[in-house]
């Protein structure tokens, strides 16, 4: 169909010499007026297909409501609570002191003379500055990232993975994890028609993936997580999705988010092994999105990196399976989203492809240097014998403990509401409860041309001032409805949010039954 | 070996033939599909040295995204990679005919020793660690700026995501800055999008403009020489690059008849939709006259082209009689016939001008006359990447809203700013003068921006030797210069040049005394090179 479109008469006429390319349309006053040159009809069709619910219509409405509140419009609530996005600081989480001290020192090195800063912060700042051109974070860095930071990242990975070596040459610093994920997908996309690259993503998924695939015109292959088994991943389901997809595209990539976003599950070691075996058997490039690696709360759950499991499976796997894993400064205990720091590690990548990757990232010059500096501190935090250690540990532990508590609280309260069922939030920063919507509400939503869970969330926003993301933005089994909510608000506020949702849900159910 | 999966069984029967020949595999699909499809979904096998079957990579140079392969970015290309190697060799104690590598390949002011503007960095430190707001050593205006920025951040922290379009108050400040700059022509903050450096904004706009296939594919007009971000982005997006040549004999000026020629030729094989202008010019350093800008706008209106004005060097104008005119201002001064119709995006950045803060990746674009539906698509598109880095947004805010007369930091700010710009003006002149004393090098005045792009005469013998080695002659020249003098330049071929001419791009950023040495070394090298090959 795309081909046919491009052969339409107007587009052909454009190429006939002397034919005016101007689209004339009559204006009110009778004088012909030119339409826009760039319109919805002739813009990039791939961009049009992009959807990103986390910042979609519901968030736009939330911003409007905030403005209305400021202008004095009366609402049944006094503030909008944005539980749509994993933005820890916006929810009141305080930055880790040490990280910010070093960033201040890097920004304004005059402060290195200042006695109020601890020696370890100064030392870190000095080391980062020495690795910067002209000792300034205002200089471009190498496109792959500052070398000493890549070394620190490699050491961090080695420590995390029990000594499995990591080569700094395989580390690419990035502008948040999103940047790196899109870059790797970009490398992998090729072929046309039935030979077009297919990419397997979980449903529910983090919509960066579907958005990137739409923009890159890759084929999205959905595999479903098992809600009844705490959103676990089943290799049989992977196989089903893969074989079905082979009929119409060329599946080359398998994306895994662990801990899960939006579903909060933490993958077992066994499951990771199964996935790796599957990827090898089926010749798939593995992409492991591990940005929530410190966010594991449930007892008996533990984060296992794909890299570690891969190498523990022996050379048959570790020397073959191609993989990229992603991390970021935005989540975990630091929650520094605004700095857009991140990295990826590529494993078993073909050297020629790697050279292409290095070239590709060079076009954008470099990831933001303050974000690189921040990442360096995350992978190389204060050590036990350093002056900032105690405070750092106290702050870090407090954040993670509060998150664990909120994860539990959220699950407990939701599960008391008839019509809401919620899996344990084993990790990450979200709950993705299932909601039952009365048939009347579903009908009403359809009348209004809305997806039922969007209708539900929009109504919740209008009535309670709580901004969630409807499950349809992440994908869900047909006929089921969910929403994603962060567990990030401070405990007291979270309790309030949960109570408001409970009240709303009961009211909603009654209204439409 | 007995437990073979169906896939493996199929593979044993015909896998290798598939891989090696890429065709003819006995699959059903091969009857109906192009030969390449036969290996789809099957693990590829290849013979390894020990005779065992070993899997080929999933992702290889042959199976990767072909548009990525076409991307080239000379500013960080092979010559820079060699420079990094040389630096390492030097640090390992290897003997070289020089003691340090001078990287004059990229407009990276701080790396060349330029000091950051104190006020900017004070505010950034305050924003990073707000405890410092209690510190009496910081001036009050820095504190009030930091306070204002933090108040518009979620949770009063630079660590929270901002709106995808950028922080509201920063966009308002940008709009006011543009109004001041453009003599009062109004600017709507809703038309401002903050970006991750200007590159990000440019690629995003180009992305929106892509459509069509074959002869209906979007064509984009770019100058030759150009800044290779453009050619790289066009390659990646699969757009058609339409070259128009700047007139080197007339100080790299832009000529409408040349635009027309390029456009008319391109219409035969693509759908030209956008015209990109870099002013002041990179790599060529020219500053466009007001009249020329008017001509370009008239041309864009007549030919229905979307204008993209890359104005990141807007403060970098050095030559007497030259002045920066923004496309926006000229457009609006041409009256509603133009200002209501011509679609324009203009780009700015924190990386150049007097601040040179490249590492923060700050920038903005202003879009004018964009269709509302398309704008909504743009807003959606940028939301996928969440937001531009917030420290870069904060810095952008300071650039557009610097200390005002009467504020405590004003004098020092102006002093630092003026010093940087006047030194740059001096170096622009020095570069032109010294290079023009060299026989076989001719250099246009560096009217603006941060680079000189002199033309070099390469002897025939050198050209032949280069071609023998499979190298572009100017790459051969620059590589030799790097090996012999430690100076890292970018060959003109990386930017594009008229066939048969050769150039290099060199930044004028090194400190004056170092620049002097560098120019002398270039001079000596050129003379030696010419002698060696004549």
UniProtKB/TrEMBL annotation, chain A:
EC id: 2.6.1.2
InterPro entries according to UniProt: ALAT1/2-like, Aminotransferase_I/II_large, PyrdxlP-dep_Trfase, PyrdxlP-dep_Trfase_major, PyrdxlP-dep_Trfase_small
Alphabetically ordered keywords of this record: Aminotransferase, Pyridoxal phosphate, Transferase
One biological process term in Gene Ontology: L-alanine catabolic process
Protein name (Swiss-Prot/TrEMBL): alanine transaminase
Gene3D superfamilies in the record: 1.10.287.1970, Aspartate Aminotransferase, domain 1, Type I PLP-dependent aspartate aminotransferase-like (Major domain)
Family: Belongs to the class-I pyridoxal-phosphate-dependent aminotransferase family. Alanine aminotransferase subfamily.
Origin organism lineage: Eukaryota, Metazoa, Chordata, Craniata, Vertebrata
SUPFAM superfamilies according to UniProt: PLP-dependent transferases
The encoding gene: si:ch211-217a12.1
TrEMBL record, chain B:
Organism lineage string: Eukaryota, Metazoa, Chordata, Craniata, Vertebrata
Protein name, UniProt field: alanine transaminase
Record note on quaternary structure: Homodimer.
Domain Aminotransferase class I/classII large stretches: 140-520
An example molecular function term from Gene Ontology annotations: L-alanine:2-oxoglutarate aminotransferase activity
Catalytic activity: L-alanine + 2-oxoglutarate = pyruvate + L-glutamate
Enzyme class: transferase
Annotated metabolic or biological route of this protein: Amino-acid degradation; L-alanine degradation via transaminase pathway; pyruvate from L-alanine: step 1/1
Organism: Echeneis naucrates (Live sharksucker)
SUPFAM superfamilies: PLP-dependent transferases
Region of interest (Disordered), ranges: 23-46
Cofactor(s) of this protein: pyridoxal 5'-phosphate
EC number, UniProt record: 2.6.1.2
GO terms of biological process kind: L-alanine catabolic process
Keyword terms of this UniProt record: Aminotransferase, Pyridoxal phosphate, Transferase
One Pfam entry name: Aminotran_1_2
Family stated for the protein in its record: Belongs to the class-I pyridoxal-phosphate-dependent aminotransferase family. Alanine aminotransferase subfamily.
InterPro entries to which the protein is assigned, alphabetical: ALAT1/2-like (IPR045088), Aminotransferase_I/II_large (IPR004839), PyrdxlP-dep_Trfase (IPR015424), PyrdxlP-dep_Trfase_major (IPR015421), PyrdxlP-dep_Trfase_small (IPR015422)
Superkingdom to which the source organism belongs: Eukaryota
């Amino acid at each position: 169909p795309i081909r046919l479109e491009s052969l339409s008469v107007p587009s052909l006429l454009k190429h006939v010499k002397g034919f005016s390319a101007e689209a004339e349309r009559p204006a009110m006053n009778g004088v012909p007026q030119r339409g826009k040159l760039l319109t919805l009809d002739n813009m990039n069709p791939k961009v049009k297909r992009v959807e990103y619910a986390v910042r979609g219509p519901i968030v736009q409405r939330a911003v409007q409501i905030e403005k209305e509140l400021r202008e004095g419009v009366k609402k049944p609530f006094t503030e909008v609570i944005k539980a749509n996005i994993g933005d820890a600081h916006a929810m009141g989480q305080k930055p880790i002191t040490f990280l910010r001290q070093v960033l201040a020192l890097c920004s304004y090195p005059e402060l290195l003379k200042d006695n109020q800063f601890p020696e370890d912060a100064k030392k870190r700042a000095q080391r980062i500055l020495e690795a910067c051109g002209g000792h300034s974070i205002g200089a471009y860095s190498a496109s792959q990232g500052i070398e000493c930071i890549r070394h620190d990242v490699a050491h961090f990975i080695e420590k995390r993975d029990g000594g499995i070596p990591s080569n700094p040459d395989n580390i690419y610093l990035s502008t948040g994890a999103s940047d790196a994920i899109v870059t790797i997908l970009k490398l992998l996309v090729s072929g046309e028609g039935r030979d077009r690259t297919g990419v397997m993503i979980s449903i529910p998924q983090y919509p960066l993936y579907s958005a990137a695939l739409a923009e890159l015109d890759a084929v999205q292959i959905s595999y479903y997580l098992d809600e009844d088994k705490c959103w676990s991943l089943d290799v049989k389901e992977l196989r089903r999705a893969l074989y079905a997809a082979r009929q119409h595209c060329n599946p080359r990539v398998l994306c895994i988010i662990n801990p899960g976003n939006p579903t909060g599950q933490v993958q077992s070691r066994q499951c990771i092994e199964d996935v790796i075996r599957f990827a090898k058997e089926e010749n798939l490039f593995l992409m492991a999105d591990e940005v929530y690696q410190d966010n594991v709360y449930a007892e008996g759950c533990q984060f296992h990196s794909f890299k570690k499991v891969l190498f523990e499976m022996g050379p048959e796997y570790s020397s073959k399976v191609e993989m990229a894993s992603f991390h970021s400064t935005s989540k975990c205990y630091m929650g520094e989203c605004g700095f857009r720091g991140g990295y990826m590690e590529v494993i078993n990548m073909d050297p020629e492809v790697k050279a292409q990757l290095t070239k590709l990232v060079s076009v954008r010059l470099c990831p933001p240097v303050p974000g690189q500096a921040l990442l360096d501190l995350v992978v190389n935090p204060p050590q036990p014998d350093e002056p900032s250690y105690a405070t750092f540990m106290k702050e870090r532990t407090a954040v993670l403990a509060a998150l664990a508590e909120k994860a539990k609280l959220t699950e407990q309260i939701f599960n008391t509401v008839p019509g809401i069922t919620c899996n344990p939030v084993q990790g990450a920063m979200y709950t993705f409860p299932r909601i039952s919507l009365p048939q009347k509400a579903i009908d009403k939503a359809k009348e209004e041309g809305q997806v039922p869970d969007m209708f539900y969330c929009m109504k919740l926003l209008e009535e309670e001032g709580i901004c969630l993301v409807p499950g349809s933005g992440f994908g869900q089994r047909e006929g089921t409805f969910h929403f994603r909510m962060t567990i990030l608000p401070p405990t007291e506020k979270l309790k309030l949010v949960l109570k408001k949702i409970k009240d709303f849900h009961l009211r909603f159910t009654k209204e439409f039954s | 070996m007995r437990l073979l999966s169906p896939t493996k069984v199929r593979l044993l029967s015909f896998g290798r033939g598939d891989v090696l020949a890429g065709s003819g595999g006995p699959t059903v699909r091969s009857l109906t599909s192009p030969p390449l499809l036969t290996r789809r979904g099957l693990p590829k096998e290849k013979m390894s040295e020990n005779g065992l079957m070993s899997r080929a990579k999933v992702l290889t140079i042959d199976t990767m995204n072909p548009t990525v392969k076409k991307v080239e970015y000379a500013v960080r290309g092979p010559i820079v990679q060699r420079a990094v190697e040389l630096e390492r060799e030097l640090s390992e104690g290897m003997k070289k005919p020089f003691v340090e590598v001078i990287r004059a390949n990229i407009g990276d002011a701080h790396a060349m020793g330029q000091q950051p503007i104190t006020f900017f960095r004070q505010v950034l430190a305050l924003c990073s660690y707000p405890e410092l707001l209690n510190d009496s050593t910081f001036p009050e205006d820095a504190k009030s700026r930091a306070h204002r920025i933090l108040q518009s951040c979620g949770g009063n922290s630079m660590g929270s995501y901002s709106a995808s379009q950028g922080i509201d108050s920063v966009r308002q400040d940008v709009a006011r800055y543009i109004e001041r700059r453009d003599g009062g022509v109004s600017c709507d903050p809703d038309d401002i999008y903050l970006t991750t450096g200007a590159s990000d904004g440019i690629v995003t706009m180009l992305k929106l403009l892509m459509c069509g296939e074959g002869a209906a594919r979007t064509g984009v007009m770019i100058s030759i020489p150009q800044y290779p971000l453009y050619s790289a982005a066009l390659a990646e997006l699969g757009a058609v690059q339409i070259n128009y040549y700047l007139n080197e004999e007339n100080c790299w000026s832009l000529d409408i008849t040349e635009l027309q020629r390029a456009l008319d030729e391109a219409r035969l094989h693509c759908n030209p939709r956008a015209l990109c202008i870099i002013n002041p010019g990179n790599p060529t350093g020219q500053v466009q006259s007001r009249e020329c800008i008017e001509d370009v706008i008239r041309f864009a209106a007549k030919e229905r082209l979307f204008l993209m004005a890359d104005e990141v060097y807007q403060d970098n104008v050095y030559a007497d009689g030259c002045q920066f005119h923004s496309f926006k201002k000229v457009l609006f001064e041409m009256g509603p016939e133009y200002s209501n119709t011509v679609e324009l995006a203009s780009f700015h950045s924190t990386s150049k001008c007097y601040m040179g803060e490249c590492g923060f990746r700050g920038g903005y674009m202003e879009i004018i006359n964009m269709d509302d539906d398309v704008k909504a698509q743009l807003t959606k598109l940028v939301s996928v990447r969440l937001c531009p880095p917030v420290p870069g947004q904060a810095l952008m805010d300071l650039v557009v809203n610097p200390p005002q007369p009467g504020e405590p930091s004003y004098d020092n700010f102006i002093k630092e700013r003026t010093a940087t710009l006047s030194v740059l003006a001096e170096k622009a002149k020095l570069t032109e003068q010294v290079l023009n004393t060299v026989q076989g090098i001719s250099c246009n005045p560096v009217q603006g921006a941060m680079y000189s792009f002199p033309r070099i005469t390469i002897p025939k013998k050198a050209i032949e030797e280069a071609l023998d080695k499979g190298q572009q002659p100017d790459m051969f020249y620059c590589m030799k210069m790097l090996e012999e003098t430690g100076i890292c330049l970018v060959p003109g071929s990386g930017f594009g040049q008229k066939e048969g001419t050769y150039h290099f791009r060199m930044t004028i950023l090194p400190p004056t005394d170092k620049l002097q040495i560098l120019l002398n070394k270039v001079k000596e090298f050129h003379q030696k090179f010419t002698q060696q090959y004549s």
